[in-house]
């Protein structure tokens, strides 16, 4: 049954007066022709402001297709209400791309045409990652993945039919479609939708500071545009690092200001108290501060990766200390917020602190690789050992955060980005599997197992977690097998308990080395180096040595 709010889309034409933008790039380029007549043309941003034209709506064949896909049949209101509440509790704090005031007012009034059906299904898609069993049963789904697939198929059908006419709404919907990922052969996973969103943003000029006026409507629009653009930057950066891909965004070419806490507050100011209590989390001011801190951290992460990609070396100790200070400043803000007793606020604080420590490990990682190479030639320096100790400390802090998430029963509501953020500490733990020190070896074995336990739980929701889990599971098996083979060939006479790295399964390190990892077998080193390389460790097609299947449909 078609919801009455969508009836306007069934007419032959739609006429709107929403202003669009078209950015022509350099203000001294083509837009100079249009701007030169203005007295302040030198201050123009390069945006051309256009009104929407009258456009034909979809034909009967397209509408029939969408009917068959069920896009006009929304979930029961009780289920929809839960999904909207989940969205604003678990997605919106670290992805504030909706104006809560206008969205919630339209939703509660049943004016779904003011929201956009494409955007609404995309919101349901993102929220499906955090639903509980009771809601799944009420909605008729067996698992989160089943629900996510159903919501995605409807959003994708609307995207394919070019149903949404508002470019801003389309960008919002596409960004949320980036929460979809099914298998390694899926060509429309997160990276695809991030790329689409970035292209739409750049074509609309959202990456450049605009020259809009200062009336209330324009203020709302500019704030929303800033949030949309920086949401693209955030997702692009973390997926690029997590999957070993280059960023699509050249941050040096963008001058859109980073959203402020005040911007975030503006997007939910004025929400009616009844709607605030029904849908919004408490401590929105704290969550807004965390989002801004996360964006600052993301900028540091981008700078680190750009330096490595451009120069191919980790830089000197002074550059490292400067970036370290910036990361620790973000972490210090998290520590200051940890006294909050609200469970949801604590979960989000834990996320940002985990991301801070993961970024530290991305900073340390190339130095650790250099230290390993030096140690094999017995030329390691005290600075190398110092960095290794810092890396182990950061990895241990991440394990402490995971323990707190487990204790608070919060693993099932972890963000998807956490899958990428856990790769660096797991690399550190894996590297120390071959330490000559039995205590260090055993410690990192257990710390890796905690990460694996969390990743195994995340597999229920995120396909990316399935990939990471199998990579490290297979790497552990190969390293252990190769280490045991080396011992056999060397005629090791140690007892079975010692030779297998204790009954608990801790892998042995070479017993005749004078330095940690100094005499690793070549095959073991190859596995470790592949897991530690900054750009290749998440490329499934290049991980043949792990025997990971190219396609894996996870139900």
UniProtKB/TrEMBL annotation:
Residues 190-265 form the Xylanolytic transcriptional activator regulatory domain. Keywords: Nucleus. One of its GO terms (molecular function) is zinc ion binding. InterPro entries: Fungal_Detox/Toxin_TFs, XnlR_reg_dom. CDD domains: fungal_TF_MHR. GO terms for biological process: DNA-templated transcription. Residues 495-521 are annotated as: Disordered. The keyword Nucleus applies. This is Xylanolytic transcriptional activator regulatory domain-containing protein. It comes from Pestalotiopsis fici (strain W106-1 / CGMCC3.15140).
